[in-house]
């Protein structure tokens, strides 16, 4: 096996229309502020050989703009959709806390054992995201890759990279709008090694 290094930049979408809420599978596009957040999150020195995106509107529209700008392939992957929050979708955190606070607290304390009412089990969500993550490591090996996705998706990928138990994968990492993460994957005859190289806003990462 030849030595290869693959660099992945993960970026969470910007603010969608309607503002912060448990959005999950609710397919809102980016707001004007969200578009600006995303454009501000890209530096002139960035270079990618391919872009992978969630198919949801708040991700794919910006991913397509970047792919056209850089002239690189764009791959849409259904497995990178955000977790489905069930009956909490379309509601703010404050609203859910007021009416369903105990279950919300249990979810954040241990999402693996507490599924949102009518929502997607966290283990099922994790399985599909990690399946996608490993697929693109193999498919785009040796390249610089951008993944445009969601806060929950980034949490699952970082948990896989850092061996964080699923019970702690949501509450243990902040992923604000347009947050970026960089992960380096090295493969050799000795195996595959994943490392989180950076996490935060572009301003924080470059200051």
From TrEMBL:
List the GO terms this entry assigns under cellular component, sorted alphabetically: cytoplasm
PANTHER family per the record? BROAD-SPECIFICITY PHOSPHATASE YOR283W-RELATED (PTHR48100), HISTIDINE PHOSPHATASE FAMILY PROTEIN-RELATED (PTHR48100:SF1)
Q: Which domain of life is it from?
A: Bacteria
Q: Which residues hold substrate?
A: 58
Q: What are the GO MF terms of this UniProt record?
A: phosphatase activity
Q: Which residues participate directly in catalysis?
A: 13, 82
Q: Which organism is it from?
A: Marinobacter adhaerens
Q: What is this protein called?
A: Alpha-ribazole phosphatase family protein
Q: Name the Pfam families on file.
A: His_Phos_1
């Amino acid at each position: 096996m030849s030595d290869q290094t693959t660099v992945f930049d993960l970026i969470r979408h910007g603010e969608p229309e309607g503002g912060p809420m448990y959005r999950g599978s609710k397919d809102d596009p980016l707001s004007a502020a969200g578009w600006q957040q995303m454009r501000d999150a890209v530096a002139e020195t960035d270079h990618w050989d391919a872009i992978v995106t969630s198919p949801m509107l708040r991700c794919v529209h910006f991913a397509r703009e970047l792919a056209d700008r850089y002239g690189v392939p764009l791959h849409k992957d259904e497995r990178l959709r955000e977790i489905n929050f069930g009956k909490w979708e379309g509601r703010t955190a404050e609203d859910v806390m007021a009416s369903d606070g105990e279950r919300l607290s249990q979810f954040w304390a241990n999402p693996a054992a507490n599924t949102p009412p009518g929502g997607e089990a966290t283990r099922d969500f994790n399985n599909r995201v990690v399946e996608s993550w490993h697929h693109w490591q193999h498919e785009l090996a040796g390249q610089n890759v951008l993944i445009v996705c969601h806060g929950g998706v980034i949490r699952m990928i970082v948990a896989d990279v850092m061996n964080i138990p699923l019970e702690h994968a949501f509450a243990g990492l902040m992923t604000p709008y347009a947050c970026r993460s960089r992960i380096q994957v090295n493969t050799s005859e000795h195996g595959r090694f994943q490392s989180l190289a950076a996490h935060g806003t572009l301003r924080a990462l470059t200051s």
